Amino acid sequence: MQLGIRLHDTAKCPFEERIADVHRMGFACGQLALSKLIDEFPTTDETLTPGLAMYIKNVFAKNHVDIAVLGCYLNLANPNQEQLAGIMHRYMAHIRFASWLGCGVVGTETGAPNETYTFVPECHTEAALQTFISQNLGARQYDRAKKGARFSILSAVLMAEAIGILYYVFAPQLIGLFDSSPSVIHNGAMQAHIVALFYFLLAFSHSIAAVCRGAGKAFVPMIVMLSIWCVLRISYILAVMKLTGEIRYVFWAYPLTWSVSSVIYLFYYLCSDWVHGFEHAAEHNKKTAGQY
What we know:
The chain has helices spanning 15-24, 34-37, 50-62, 81-101, 126-138, 142-176, 182-195, 199-214, 219-243, 247-251, 253-271, 277-290; strands at 4-6, 29-32, 66-71, 106-107. With 292 residues, it is mostly helical. It has 2 domains: 4-121, Divalent-metal-dependent TIM barrel enzymes (TIM Barrel), CATH 3.20.20.150; 144-282, no CATH class. Helix 3 (50-62) crosses helix 4 and helix 9 runs antiparallel to helix 11 (253-271).
């Protein structure tokens, strides 16, 4: 085992002296973030040449320090396409530079769906999953997209169900925090006891919808939600209100339609070739263009 350090966390001094200090401190490897470590010369994309790589590699070798990770921590989920293109160019330059350095890893982080690269609630929503799926499918990282989809779906389902169970158990107390009227608590608790344990279906449907949108299949969630969550749900509510007039049957509209949409989404997720959606769309466009 080798001990390593983020090189830019060491005392600031000229580059060659800094690497020598790393060796004297007993570290055998480090993470190299070019723009954070080096001030003496530029490290922009166009300067990352084989000659610069040879110089840096020799400095590290002379001091018996390995470059474990070449850091490049930029926002790969940036929604601004112009900025994202620049970020992707930066990553490609680092990947090429890493091969010349003899470094096998270019480090990155999960992104944020905004231009400021700051944590926002959307980091845990459909938007984040949609961005992850679309970027990985665009890069033809099919296995990574599928693993990410599975993990996100499972996480969403488990968290939603945990919240649902808590709401089911503590519904009267939670509702009482906002309104202490007995009738409000009674109806609210009734709704919770009917709906809350089905929250996992709601999370599942939204997760698959995000996967579909990320795969370029936005029409799938549009059709499912319009037909099931709007048409079917409203038709059901109108029917049961006309037949019974009881609110409890209205509450059942939600778990019933979540169940139907989840079955449809599950079938589409398992049986369709959603991971190759972009390629199929490109082939279709070529065929269509060839007809004119």
